[in-house]
Amino acid sequence: MAFPPPFYRWRPHPWHGLEVGPNPPSVVHAYIEITPFDVVKYELDKRTGYLRVDRPQRASSLPPSLYGFVPRTFCGARVAALFPKAAKGDGDPLDICVLAERPINRSEVILEARVVGGIQMLDNEEADDKIIAVLKNDNVWGEVNDLSGLPNVMVERLRHYFATYKLVPGRESTVSIVGIYGREHAELVIRAAVEDYQDEFGG
């Protein structure tokens, strides 16, 4: 029996086996690792492509959006060059936060996300940008094209979460939020991360 294309006899690796998206850098795929209902930090196991338990969240705050990464991206030299305070990229796929009106309580899902902006986050002197996007066909947020189309409080929640989610009492934080940017710069970061991926892993 011949299988119709595209058919995967085996599960594709979420980072390397999926496409960047249908219309990058404006509309990208997001592979979701964490939902707003998770009190445990899950993270992609880079070798196997499965989710691994990274750590239970120490603080009481929950992620304010779906959280994952854009396939076939890599935060390397080009991403760091867009972030003057960063010594280098963090060596991970590019993180993305996706806002959706309806609750999505499952991780390990793929969705199409419209890019609207981003958070410039520095972690141990490494560029660790967080792209902000909306679910492409969302009934409430689907037509938003830039960060200015979102209520300020939603961006504030994202900023606060990433500024505090690694806090440990008695220890100095290694994370700082340097700034927030709109769609135009976010698309530059995505382009840079795609090119960094090609440099690191090939086309």
Description:
There is one protein chain. This protein has a five-stranded mixed β-barrel with strand order 1-4-6-9-7. A two-stranded antiparallel ribbon has the order 2-3. It has one domain: Inorganic pyrophosphatase (Inorganic Pyrophosphatase, Alpha-Beta Complex), CATH 3.90.80. The protein starts with 26 loop residues before the first strand and ends with a helix. The longest helix has 19 residues, at 183-201. With 203 residues, the protein is of the alpha+beta class. The protein has three helices and ten strands.
How much helix is in the residues?
Answer: 10-25%
Structural class given helices, strands, pairing? alpha+beta
- CATH class category name: Alpha Beta
Rg for CA atoms: 16 Å
